[in-house]
């Protein structure tokens, strides 16, 4: 089998290395000339372990036709802001061999406010779409640490294909059918992780952080339920599991962004210092607009948005959250 990746960032490379380890032919498309030149020269990504080079047998190219030629699996691993345009660009190049399209991009489309599996289906009708999500820090996956993910699709056979293909030595994948729940959880945990990073940056204790994560998960679940997701999904790998990783790992860009902001660095400056994409920054406004259309209350997400885009001080956001009317604990 051959897997063609649209995007050659740290997550794409970590997964590509696992598939190569399993014996698949792997190719990655990198449109950024500078990133491509660095990767070809060093055969290494700066956010992956030094001890894990990219083998010469893995093709990395600026030509998507080469990458997608005779690919059985097409994996989209682009930043959320460009996924739709990337799908449209490669549409005429999609191999007739392609059995399944996989999305590992987390977020909400900034233009349409649609989930990315929906975006991919609209741009690339034909092969079933599977979302691969869960608590996976690329560095640790590439380094061999045990990791579990979930492959979710309305097409159960496609989900099982991705589950079985991506399961390898240290990576165990489960299958699932609640696409809405998994995508909402995967997108919004990044926003809550920014809030957790802000709390850490300010110096709040574990009491505050645990409450923030619990109520953040309640927000995510509330939005998912409004979209007919299965509530149990949010207690699983894509929900609680991914939220824990993203809100605590020092390698989580969303958590690092929040930490910098909590320490007084302006959001725009903190973003530039990351050296990569923090998807929660883009999910906050798109997700908040979606929630308002559904008349769903997301108080933590709204405060994160105000901090990121309106210059609000975190201390004021904390005060507003604490002064909200008392109520029963309920999603």
From TrEMBL:
The keyword Electron transport does not apply. This is Glycerol-3-phosphate dehydrogenase [NAD(P)+]. NADPH binds at residues 11, 106, 253, 277, 279. Its main location: cytoplasm. Catalyzes the reduction of the glycolytic intermediate dihydroxyacetone phosphate (DHAP) to sn-glycerol 3-phosphate (G3P), the key precursor for phospholipid synthesis. Sn-glycerol 3-phosphate binds at residues 106, 134, 189, 242, 252-254. It catalyses: sn-glycerol 3-phosphate + NAD(+) = dihydroxyacetone phosphate + NADH + H(+); sn-glycerol 3-phosphate + NADP(+) = dihydroxyacetone phosphate + NADPH + H(+). Pathway: Membrane lipid metabolism; glycerophospholipid metabolism. Residues 4-158 form the Glycerol-3-phosphate dehydrogenase NAD-dependent N-terminal domain. One of its GO terms (molecular function) is glycerol-3-phosphate dehydrogenase [NAD(P)+] activity. Its EC number is 1.1.1.94. It comes from candidate division WOR-3 bacterium. It is an enzyme of class 1 (oxidoreductase). Keywords: Cytoplasm, Lipid biosynthesis, Lipid metabolism, NAD, NADP, Nucleotide-binding, Oxidoreductase, Phospholipid biosynthesis, Phospholipid metabolism. Residues 178-318 form the Glycerol-3-phosphate dehydrogenase NAD-dependent C-terminal domain. GO terms for biological process: carbohydrate metabolic process; glycerol-3-phosphate biosynthetic process; glycerol-3-phosphate catabolic process; glycerophospholipid metabolic process; phospholipid biosynthetic process. Pfam families: NAD_Gly3P_dh_C, NAD_Gly3P_dh_N. The active site is at residue 189. Substrate binds at residues 106, 253-254. Belongs to the NAD-dependent glycerol-3-phosphate dehydrogenase family. InterPro entries: 6-PGluconate_DH-like_C_sf, 6PGD_dom2, G3P_DH_NAD-dep, G3P_DH_NAD-dep_C, G3P_DH_NAD-dep_N, NAD(P)-bd_dom_sf. GO terms for cellular component: cytosol. The keyword Transmembrane does not apply. NAD(+) binds at residue 253. It is found in: Cytoplasm.
């Amino acid at each position: 089998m051959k897997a063609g990746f649209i995007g050659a960032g740290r997550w794409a490379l970590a997964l590509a290395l696992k598939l190569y380890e399993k014996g698949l032919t792997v190719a990655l498309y990198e449109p950024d000339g500078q990133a491509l030149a660095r990767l070809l020269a060093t055969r290494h990504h700066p956010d992956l372990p030094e001890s894990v080079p990219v083998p010469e047998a893995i093709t990395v190219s600026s030509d998507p036709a080469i990458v997608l030629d005779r690919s059985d699996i097409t994996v989209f691993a682009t930043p959320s802001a460009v996924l739709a345009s990337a799908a449209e660009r490669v549409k005429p190049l999609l191999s007739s061999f392609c059995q399944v399209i996989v999305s590992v991009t987390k977020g909400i489309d900034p233009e349409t406010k649609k989930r990315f599996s929906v975006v991919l289906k609209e741009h690339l009708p034909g092969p079933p779409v599977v979302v691969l999500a869960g608590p996976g820090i690329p560095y640790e996956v590439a380094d061999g640490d045990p990791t579990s993910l979930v492959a979710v699709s309305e097409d159960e056979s496609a989900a099982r294909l991705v589950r079985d293909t991506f399961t390898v030595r240290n990576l165990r994948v489960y299958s699932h059918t609640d696409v809405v729940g998994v995508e909402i959880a995967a997108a919004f945990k990044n926003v809550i992780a920014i809030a957790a990073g802000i709390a850490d940056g300010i110096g709040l204790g574990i009491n505050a952080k645990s409450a923030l994560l619990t109520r953040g998960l309640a927000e995510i679940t509330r939005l998912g339920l409004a979209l007919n997701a299965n509530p149990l999904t949010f207690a699983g790998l894509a929900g609680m599991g991914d939220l824990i990783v993203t809100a605590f790992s020092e390698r989580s860009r969303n958590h690092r962004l929040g930490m910098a902001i909590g320490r007084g660095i302006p959001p725009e400056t903190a973003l530039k210092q990351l050296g990569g994409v923090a998807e929660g920054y883009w999910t906050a406004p798109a997700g908040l607009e979606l929630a308002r259309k559904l008349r769903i209350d997301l108080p933590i997400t709204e405060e994160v948005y105000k901090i990121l885009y309106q210059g609000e001080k975190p201390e004021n956001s904390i005060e507003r959250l604490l002064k909200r009317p008392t109520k029963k604990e309920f999603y």
